[in-house]
UniProtKB/TrEMBL annotation:
Gene Ontology MF terms: transferase activity, transferring alkyl or aryl (other than methyl) groups
Pfam families per UniProt: Trp_DMAT (PF11991)
Similarity comment: Belongs to the tryptophan dimethylallyltransferase family.
Keyword Transferase applies: yes
Keyword list, A-Z: Transferase
GO biological process: alkaloid metabolic process
PANTHER family, per the entry: INDOLE PRENYLTRANSFERASE TDIB-RELATED, PRENYLTRANSFERASE ASQH1-RELATED
Protein name: Aromatic prenyltransferase
Organism of origin: Lepraria neglecta
Superkingdom, taxonomy of origin: Eukaryota
CDD domains: PT-DMATS_CymD
UniProt binding sites for dimethylallyl diphosphate: R112, K198, Y200, R271, K273, Y275
Record bears the keyword Endoplasmic reticulum: no
């Protein structure tokens, strides 16, 4: 077992991966691009699967499936260290992100990954903003993912589409340093071997081209999912849009960021998610956005926010005895992503679960320091086994972007469900 130390405070430890070795003996790469992406990603995936105690059968299944579909969908490999098509999916410009789904009431963690499928046409005159990559990929894998349904995917893709004659205008208006993604996909790798597929759509390209606000594009797309039987998302959506309207004309207004769906057959109560990027540099400001200015009430919202308060205090070393702690600006102008998960109902009241994504790279700490903070959080919340191996797991799985010298950055997603 070899090891090395990186500048971010985390050692990179190479571990024996017998299942990956077995799969590598089976494959014969048909292109240099595919070989590049497989070499760049497979070790991390194999390490995460092994460290999180997936069965040997599940590890083989996921590694084989990954090799078959994902590397070809990442497009051409970087050229002279620069991405062929820079989508800015992640902070370090990687087109790919691994994550671990931790739930306080579950003993098992689920491995996930997210990426923007890309083709050789991306960034060319044929497809300047990569509107074809995700659709081509989803259509291709549909025959190999049981239960995959693209009805909502196609609906949302069309709602955020930029007409070909408006692409140049949208590019001219595109802000510098703003993500270029059009649509991305994510996969939850269940221990059973079943894949849970989700899709995410950024409305800003369509907003730039059409002049229609991103929040309106999202709102219209969600309302189009209301059912003929009276089930609708209106109560939840009205609460979100009503709160966003209170920021009209303000420079620091929350930004309608993403629209997301699960790629399964439409059923009563099917969930949709709206992502809002908002400034949240104090707990008081975070709470205001979390409960939509008081529009979300009840025991569930209160209990959920209490869990977030505990995490916030843990991250920033705040004390419950300090009466000013909630108002302290922990990282000036820090922004978080609020995820409003809604299900269709017959009522007019909002039915929302809220999740919070905290971009850890804003905290000014190394991955090593952050892993220690998170390990102590897991320890204090009933997962001593995960706490004990968390930093070493990160050491083993450390993924370094092919595009830069920066290591893969941690994003912690927190939610407290009703059950």
């Amino acid at each position: 077992m070899a090891s090395s130390i990186t500048s971010n405070g985390v050692g990179h430890v190479a571990e024996a991966l017998p299942i990956l070795d077995e799969v590598n003996q089976e494959i014969r790469s048909d292109s240099e691009d595919r070989a590049f992406w497989w070499e760049a990603m497979s070790g991390t995936l194999a390490t995460l699967l092994q460290a999180n105690q997936y069965s040997d059968e599940a590890q083989r299944h996921y590694l084989r499936w990954f090799y078959k579909w994902v590397p070809p969908a990442l497009g051409p490999r970087p050229i002279n260290g620069k991405p062929y098509y820079g989508s800015w999916l992640t902070h370090d410009l990687s087109p790919f992100e691994f994550s671990i789904n931790w739930k306080e009431k579950s003993r098992k963690q689920i491995i996930r990954f997210t990426f923007e499928p890309t083709t050789k046409q991306a960034g060319t005159a044929t497809d300047p903003i990569n509107q074809l990559g995700t659709k081509e990929f989803m259509n291709t894998i549909s025959k190999d993912v049981p239960g995959l349904d693209l009805t909502r995917f196609n609906q949302f893709l069309e709602a955020t589409n930029v007409p070909s004659d408006g692409v140049d205008n949208a590019i001219a208006k595109h802000p510098p340093n703003f993500p270029r993604c059009r649509a991305v996909v994510a996969f939850d790798l269940e221990h059973s071997g079943d894949l849970m597929v989700k899709s995410y759509f950024l409305p800003h390209w369509r907003a730039l081209q059409s002049g229609i606000p991103a929040k309106t594009i999202i709102s219209d797309a969600v309302r189009a999912c209301n059912g003929p039987d009276g089930l609708s998302y209106d109560g939840s959506l009205d609460a979100i849009m009503s709160y966003l309207s209170t920021f009209e004309g303000q420079e620091d207004a929350p930004l309608a960021w993403l629209l997301s769906n699960d790629c399964v057959a439409d059923t009563p109560g099917m969930r949709l998610k709206v992502y809002i990027l908002s400034e949240a540099d104090s707990l008081t400001k975070l709470n205001e956005m979390y409960n939509l200015g008081g529009r979300l009430k009840g025991a569930h919202i209160a209990a959920s926010f209490e869990g977030i308060r505990e995490l916030w205090y843990h991250l920033f070393g705040l004390s419950g005895s300090d009466l000013t702690a909630n108002d302290k600006v922990c990282v000036d102008k820090m922004k978080c992503v609020f995820v409003y998960e809604m299900r269709s109902t017959h009522g007019s009241e909002p039915d929302l679960d809220v999740k919070l994504h905290i971009p850890m790279w804003q905290l000014g700490k190394s991955d090593g320091q952050l892993s220690e903070v998170m390990a102590s959080w897991f320890e204090s919340h009933g997962h001593p086994d995960l706490a004990a191996r968390y930093k070493s797991d990160l050491n083993k799985a450390l993924y370094v972007s092919p595009f830069s010298s920066f290591p893969h950055l941690i994003v912690f997603s927190s939610s407290w469900p009703k059950s």
